[in-house]
Write a structure and sequence with these properties.
With 132 residues, the protein is mainly alpha-helical. The radius of gyration is 28 Å and the shape is flat. It contains 5 helices and no strands. It folds into 2 domains: 33 residues; 84 residues, no CATH class.
Length: 132
């Protein structure tokens, strides 16, 4: 196929990729296809509460043991992510257990409140239909 039949922007991209391949470098698109990373957003500032919540969420959602929080290799991984961390900043298994209990209790109270509200609305609509 003649290069005259290819639109200019596509031809330019093809030439850049050909030149990059010739130099032994990968283009941005090729890098992105190779890496296949998912973007994860998290807290921008380190807080003990955010670290505790993240570790507790990891333990609860990935069916991990509470002992994971006390695992030395896991704590070293956390310190590697934030070298300024002290042992006081890192959550223990006891902290994770208490946080998990408190979050569960808070969730159950909210669920009970929502059920009560919905049942009262449902009862009110039944009473209105009875009056008609």
């Amino acid at each position: 196929m003649s290069h005259w039949a290819i639109p200019c922007d596509i031809w330019k991209t093809m030439e850049e990729e050909k030149e990059a391949k010739h130099r032994g470098q990968l283009t941005k698109k090729q890098h992105q296809q190779l890496l296949d990373f998912k973007t994860v957003t998290g807290p921008h500032n380190f807080t003990r509460e955010a670290a505790l919540h993240a570790v507790t969420k990891l333990i609860a959602t990935n069916n991990q043991s509470l002992a994971l929080a006390d695992n030395l290799a896991f704590q070293n991984a956390l310190v590697a992510m934030r070298p300024k961390s002290t042992t006081h900043d890192l959550p223990s298994s006891y902290d994770a257990k208490i946080h998990l209990h408190n979050e569960f209790t808070k969730h159950m109270k909210q669920l009970k409140k929502e059920i009560t509200i919905r049942s009262s609305i449902f009862d009110a609509s039944d009473n209105a239909e009875d009056l008609l």
